[in-house]
Write a structure and sequence with these properties.
There is one protein chain. By secondary structure, this protein is an alpha/beta fold. It has a single domain, classed as Fe-S cluster assembly (FSCA) (GMP Synthetase, Chain A, domain 3). Helices cover 31% and strands 23% of the residues. The strands form two sheets. A four-stranded mixed beta sheet has the order 1-4-5-6, covered by helices on one side. It has a two-stranded antiparallel sheet with strand order 2-3. A hairpin with a 4-residue loop joins strand 2 and strand 3. It is globular, with a radius of gyration of 13 Å.
């Protein structure tokens, strides 16, 4: 996983919370799938800025996954506003799956 962040400690907490968000079609969490690209913390404005993607632009569960990502971050950081940016640049590919994710999928 190669997430970009301006606060590694809070990012680790955010990623731990996001491991509860499962892509229902694949059965793997969004972190180990490599869908989370960036998690930055704007302390001055009490915001979490998160850049993420989906496995495809036409993911039928995209709206559900997006809402679950937002909820997970809101629950983990209740005093902060969550700002999500969905991107497809770079496009997701299977090489983005973590080693733990590969092990899970190979079970």
């Amino acid at each position: 996983m190669n997430e970009i962040t301006n606060n590694p400690i809070k990012c680790a907490l955010a990623l731990e919370a996001l491991k509860d968000v499962i892509d229902p079609e694949i059965g793997l969490n969004v972190v180990d799938l490599g869908l989370i690209y960036q998690v930055d913390f704007d302390e001055e404005n009490s915001k979490i800025n998160t850049v993420f993607t989906l496995t495809t632009q036409f993911c039928p569960m995209g709206e559900s996954i997006t809402e679950a990502v937002k909820r997970a971050l809101e629950n983990a950081f209740p005093l902060m506003e969550v700002d999500l940016e969905l991107t497809f640049d770079p496009a997701w590919n299977q090489e983005m799956i973590s080693e733990a994710g590969i092990n899970f999928l190979n079970q």
